[in-house]
Protein backbone atom coordinates (compact mmCIF):
# COMPACT_ATOMS: atom_id res chain seq x y z
CA UNK A 1 0.00 0.00 0.00
CA UNK A 2 2.99 2.30 0.41
CA UNK A 3 2.99 5.18 -2.07
CA UNK A 4 5.68 7.83 -1.43
CA UNK A 5 4.13 10.01 -4.15
CA UNK A 6 1.02 10.46 -1.98
CA UNK A 7 2.72 13.02 0.27
CA UNK A 8 3.92 15.11 -2.66
CA UNK A 9 0.40 16.45 -3.12
CA UNK A 10 0.56 18.06 0.30
CA UNK A 11 4.26 18.90 0.64
CA UNK A 12 5.33 22.54 0.49
CA UNK A 13 8.12 22.47 -2.07
CA UNK A 14 11.27 24.38 -1.13
CA UNK A 15 11.48 27.70 -2.93
CA UNK A 16 7.81 27.80 -3.97
CA UNK A 17 5.45 30.39 -2.53
CA UNK A 18 2.61 28.77 -0.60
CA UNK A 19 -0.95 30.01 -1.00
CA UNK A 20 -3.31 28.32 1.44
CA UNK A 21 -6.23 29.38 -0.79
CA UNK A 22 -4.95 26.80 -3.29
CA UNK A 23 -5.38 23.98 -0.74
CA UNK A 24 -8.90 22.70 -0.12
CA UNK A 25 -9.31 21.90 3.60
CA UNK A 26 -12.23 19.59 2.72
CA UNK A 27 -10.22 17.47 0.26
CA UNK A 28 -10.60 13.72 0.86
CA UNK A 29 -8.84 12.03 -2.03
CA UNK A 30 -10.25 8.87 -3.58
CA UNK A 31 -12.19 7.90 -0.46
CA UNK A 32 -15.74 9.11 0.00
CA UNK A 33 -16.13 8.64 3.74
CA UNK A 34 -14.65 7.33 6.98
CA UNK A 35 -15.94 3.78 6.53
CA UNK A 36 -14.36 3.43 3.11
CA UNK A 37 -10.99 4.57 4.50
CA UNK A 38 -11.14 2.49 7.68
CA UNK A 39 -9.15 -0.52 6.45
CA UNK A 40 -6.38 1.58 4.93
CA UNK A 41 -6.12 3.78 8.02
CA UNK A 42 -5.88 0.68 10.23
CA UNK A 43 -3.11 -0.70 8.02
CA UNK A 44 -0.99 2.41 8.46
CA UNK A 45 -1.63 2.46 12.20
CA UNK A 46 -0.29 -1.11 12.51
CA UNK A 47 2.65 -0.31 10.28
CA UNK A 48 3.50 2.73 12.40
CA UNK A 49 3.81 0.51 15.46
CA UNK A 50 6.11 -1.91 13.60
CA UNK A 51 8.31 0.87 12.26
CA UNK A 52 8.57 2.61 15.62
CA UNK A 53 9.80 -0.67 17.11
CA UNK A 54 12.52 -0.81 14.44
CA UNK A 55 13.44 2.84 15.07
CA UNK A 56 13.78 2.16 18.79
CA UNK A 57 15.74 -1.07 18.36
CA UNK A 58 18.11 0.20 15.68
CA UNK A 59 18.86 3.42 17.54
CA UNK A 60 20.30 5.29 14.56
CA UNK A 61 17.61 7.92 13.96
CA UNK A 62 15.20 10.07 15.91
CA UNK A 63 11.84 11.28 14.58
CA UNK A 64 10.46 14.74 15.32
CA UNK A 65 6.87 15.41 14.29
CA UNK A 66 5.62 19.01 14.54
CA UNK A 67 1.88 19.65 14.56
CA UNK A 68 0.56 23.15 13.96
CA UNK A 69 -3.01 24.30 13.48
CA UNK A 70 -5.44 27.02 14.37
CA UNK A 71 -7.71 26.39 17.36
CA UNK A 72 -9.78 23.19 16.94
CA UNK A 73 -7.58 22.19 14.00
CA UNK A 74 -7.12 18.66 15.33
CA UNK A 75 -3.66 18.45 16.93
CA UNK A 76 -4.87 16.44 19.94
CA UNK A 77 -7.02 14.22 17.74
CA UNK A 78 -4.11 13.46 15.43
CA UNK A 79 -1.94 12.48 18.38
CA UNK A 80 -4.68 10.29 19.84
CA UNK A 81 -5.94 8.55 16.70
CA UNK A 82 -2.74 8.22 14.68
CA UNK A 83 0.37 8.53 16.77
CA UNK A 84 -1.26 6.96 19.81
CA UNK A 85 -0.55 3.55 18.28
CA UNK A 86 3.13 3.96 19.09
CA UNK A 87 4.70 2.41 22.18
CA UNK A 88 5.00 5.09 24.91
CA UNK A 89 8.38 3.62 25.90
CA UNK A 90 9.94 5.25 22.85
CA UNK A 91 7.49 8.06 22.15
CA UNK A 92 6.53 11.25 23.98
CA UNK A 93 4.49 14.38 23.35
CA UNK A 94 5.75 17.87 24.12
CA UNK A 95 3.21 20.69 24.30
CA UNK A 96 4.28 24.31 23.84
CA UNK A 97 2.16 26.84 25.65
CA UNK A 98 2.94 30.32 27.02
CA UNK A 99 6.66 30.30 27.92
CA UNK A 100 7.49 29.80 31.57
CA UNK A 101 9.75 32.39 33.26
CA UNK A 102 12.69 30.02 32.80
CA UNK A 103 11.92 29.54 29.10
CA UNK A 104 11.40 33.26 28.54
CA UNK A 105 14.84 33.93 30.02
CA UNK A 106 16.50 31.99 27.17
CA UNK A 107 16.55 32.29 23.39
CA UNK A 108 13.33 31.30 21.62
CA UNK A 109 14.70 27.92 20.48
CA UNK A 110 15.99 26.81 23.87
CA UNK A 111 12.83 25.10 25.06
CA UNK A 112 12.39 23.34 21.71
CA UNK A 113 15.97 22.10 21.50
CA UNK A 114 15.94 20.51 24.93
CA UNK A 115 12.76 18.58 24.00
CA UNK A 116 14.00 17.09 20.71
CA UNK A 117 14.28 13.30 20.31
CA UNK A 118 17.34 11.22 20.93
CA UNK A 119 18.26 8.41 18.57
CA UNK A 120 15.60 5.72 18.66
CA UNK A 121 12.97 8.10 20.01
CA UNK A 122 9.84 9.71 18.55
CA UNK A 123 8.80 13.13 19.83
CA UNK A 124 5.62 14.93 18.81
CA UNK A 125 5.51 18.70 19.24
CA UNK A 126 1.94 19.87 19.96
CA UNK A 127 2.54 23.37 18.66
CA UNK A 128 6.23 24.08 18.34
CA UNK A 129 9.02 26.59 17.90
CA UNK A 130 6.96 28.01 15.01
CA UNK A 131 4.74 29.80 17.52
CA UNK A 132 7.54 32.37 17.65
CA UNK A 133 6.91 33.39 14.03
CA UNK A 134 3.12 32.99 14.20
CA UNK A 135 1.29 34.25 17.27
CA UNK A 136 4.01 36.75 18.15
CA UNK A 137 3.73 38.15 14.62
CA UNK A 138 -0.06 38.29 14.53
CA UNK A 139 -0.31 40.02 17.91
CA UNK A 140 2.83 42.13 17.40
CA UNK A 141 4.42 40.91 20.63
CA UNK A 142 7.89 41.43 19.16
CA UNK A 143 9.11 43.85 16.46
CA UNK A 144 8.98 42.75 12.84
CA UNK A 145 12.78 42.70 12.57
CA UNK A 146 12.85 40.12 15.40
CA UNK A 147 10.38 37.59 14.00
CA UNK A 148 11.70 38.09 10.46
CA UNK A 149 15.15 37.00 11.60
CA UNK A 150 13.80 33.85 13.20
CA UNK A 151 13.11 32.01 9.93
CA UNK A 152 16.83 31.63 9.28
CA UNK A 153 17.48 30.55 12.88
CA UNK A 154 14.75 27.90 12.59
CA UNK A 155 16.21 26.52 9.36
CA UNK A 156 19.68 26.35 10.93
CA UNK A 157 18.26 24.62 14.01
CA UNK A 158 16.44 22.01 11.95
CA UNK A 159 19.47 21.45 9.72
CA UNK A 160 21.55 20.76 12.83
CA UNK A 161 19.02 18.19 14.04
CA UNK A 162 18.93 16.51 10.62
CA UNK A 163 22.72 16.31 10.48
CA UNK A 164 22.63 14.44 13.78
CA UNK A 165 20.18 11.78 12.65
CA UNK A 166 16.79 13.33 13.36
CA UNK A 167 14.12 12.94 10.69
CA UNK A 168 11.78 15.96 10.84
CA UNK A 169 8.17 16.02 9.58
CA UNK A 170 5.97 19.10 10.02
CA UNK A 171 2.21 19.10 9.51
CA UNK A 172 -0.10 22.10 9.25
CA UNK A 173 -3.63 20.83 9.85
CA UNK A 174 -5.62 23.03 7.50
CA UNK A 175 -9.27 23.69 8.40
CA UNK A 176 -11.81 26.19 7.11
CA UNK A 177 -13.25 28.95 9.32
CA UNK A 178 -16.68 27.36 8.91
CA UNK A 179 -15.41 24.00 10.19
CA UNK A 180 -13.65 25.67 13.10
CA UNK A 181 -16.93 27.32 14.15
CA UNK A 182 -18.79 24.00 13.85
CA UNK A 183 -16.22 22.36 16.11
CA UNK A 184 -16.55 25.16 18.66
CA UNK A 185 -20.33 24.64 18.62
CA UNK A 186 -19.96 20.89 19.16
CA UNK A 187 -17.69 21.55 22.11
CA UNK A 188 -20.32 23.80 23.62
CA UNK A 189 -22.89 21.02 23.37
CA UNK A 190 -20.70 18.11 24.51
CA UNK A 191 -20.20 17.97 28.31
CA UNK A 192 -17.00 15.99 27.79
CA UNK A 193 -15.47 18.81 25.75
CA UNK A 194 -16.88 21.94 27.35
CA UNK A 195 -13.75 22.35 29.44
CA UNK A 196 -11.83 23.05 26.22
CA UNK A 197 -13.88 26.12 25.32
CA UNK A 198 -12.78 29.62 26.28
CA UNK A 199 -13.59 33.10 25.06
CA UNK A 200 -10.00 33.27 23.81
CA UNK A 201 -10.92 30.77 21.08
CA UNK A 202 -13.52 33.15 19.69
CA UNK A 203 -11.34 36.20 20.30
CA UNK A 204 -8.77 34.80 17.83
CA UNK A 205 -11.24 34.39 14.96
CA UNK A 206 -10.99 38.04 13.78
CA UNK A 207 -7.27 37.36 13.22
CA UNK A 208 -7.98 34.52 10.79
CA UNK A 209 -6.53 36.26 7.74
CA UNK A 210 -3.49 37.44 9.69
CA UNK A 211 -2.80 33.87 10.81
CA UNK A 212 -3.19 32.61 7.25
CA UNK A 213 -0.58 35.10 6.07
CA UNK A 214 1.75 34.19 8.94
CA UNK A 215 1.45 30.48 8.16
CA UNK A 216 1.98 31.03 4.45
CA UNK A 217 5.26 32.84 5.06
CA UNK A 218 6.50 30.45 7.73
CA UNK A 219 5.79 27.36 5.65
CA UNK A 220 7.22 28.95 2.50
CA UNK A 221 10.46 30.00 4.20
CA UNK A 222 10.94 26.91 6.35
CA UNK A 223 9.96 23.93 4.20
CA UNK A 224 13.29 22.34 3.33
CA UNK A 225 14.45 19.00 1.97
CA UNK A 226 15.53 17.84 5.41
CA UNK A 227 12.51 19.29 7.26
CA UNK A 228 9.47 19.44 4.94
CA UNK A 229 6.13 21.04 5.72
CA UNK A 230 2.89 19.33 4.71
CA UNK A 231 -0.47 21.09 4.41
CA UNK A 232 -2.97 18.44 5.49
CA UNK A 233 -6.67 18.91 4.63
CA UNK A 234 -8.29 18.59 8.05
CA UNK A 235 -11.99 19.43 7.71
CA UNK A 236 -12.55 15.64 7.61
CA UNK A 237 -10.87 14.15 10.65
CA UNK A 238 -10.71 10.67 9.14
CA UNK A 239 -8.83 11.93 6.08
CA UNK A 240 -6.45 13.94 8.29
CA UNK A 241 -5.64 10.75 10.20
CA UNK A 242 -5.13 8.74 7.04
CA UNK A 243 -2.89 11.35 5.42
CA UNK A 244 -0.65 11.96 8.42
CA UNK A 245 -0.17 8.28 9.21
CA UNK A 246 0.59 7.43 5.57
CA UNK A 247 3.19 10.20 5.21
CA UNK A 248 4.91 9.21 8.46
CA UNK A 249 4.97 5.55 7.39
CA UNK A 250 6.44 6.41 3.99
CA UNK A 251 9.26 8.43 5.56
CA UNK A 252 10.08 5.75 8.14
CA UNK A 253 10.11 3.03 5.49
CA UNK A 254 12.58 5.11 3.47
CA UNK A 255 15.06 4.80 6.36
CA UNK A 256 15.40 1.08 5.48
CA UNK A 257 15.78 0.15 9.14
CA UNK A 258 16.96 -3.25 10.37
CA UNK A 259 16.97 -4.99 13.71
CA UNK A 260 20.47 -4.91 15.19
CA UNK A 261 22.54 -8.06 15.47
CA UNK A 262 22.62 -9.70 18.92
CA UNK A 263 25.44 -8.39 21.12
CA UNK A 264 25.93 -11.64 22.94
CA UNK A 265 26.73 -15.25 22.01
CA UNK A 266 23.26 -16.78 21.75
CA UNK A 267 24.56 -20.35 21.58
CA UNK A 268 26.59 -19.81 24.74
CA UNK A 269 23.52 -18.46 26.56
CA UNK A 270 21.46 -21.46 25.42
CA UNK A 271 24.11 -23.90 26.64
CA UNK A 272 24.71 -22.07 29.91
CA UNK A 273 21.13 -21.43 31.00
CA UNK A 274 18.55 -23.35 29.02
CA UNK A 275 20.26 -26.76 29.14
CA UNK A 276 20.67 -26.36 32.89
CA UNK A 277 17.01 -25.44 33.19
CA UNK A 278 15.99 -28.56 31.25
CA UNK A 279 18.12 -30.75 33.55
CA UNK A 280 16.54 -29.38 36.73
CA UNK A 281 13.79 -31.63 38.13
CA UNK A 282 10.29 -30.21 38.12
Task: List its salient traits.
282 residues, alpha/beta, Rossmann fold, 11 helices, 45% helix, 11% strand, globular
Structure overview:
The protein is about 45% helix and about 10% strand. With about 280 residues, it is an alpha/beta fold. Strands 2-3-1-4-5 form a five-stranded parallel β-sheet, with helices on both faces. The mean pLDDT is about 95.
Percent helix: 40-55%
Low-pLDDT residue spans: none
User: Kindly state the mean pLDDT as a whole number?
Assistant: 93
Computed Rg: 22 Å
* Count of DSSP strands: 5
**Which structural category fits the helices and strands?**
alpha/beta
User: What's the architecture, going by CATH?
Assistant: 3-Layer(aba) Sandwich
For this structure, the CATH topology is: Rossmann fold
Biggest beta sheet attributes: 5 strands, parallel
Q: How many domains, as an integer?
A: 1
Topology readout:
Elements: H1 34-58, E1 62-69, H2 75-81, E2 91-95, H3 101-104, H4 110-113, E3 122-126, H5 135-138, H6 144-163, E4 166-174, H7 177-189, H8 199-203, H9 208-222, E5 229-233, H10 237-253, H11 266-279
Parallel strand pairs: 1-3, 1-4, 2-3, 4-5
Helix pairs in contact: 1-10
Summarize the model shown.
With 282 residues, the chain is α/β, with parallel strands linked by helices. It is 45% helix and 11% strand.
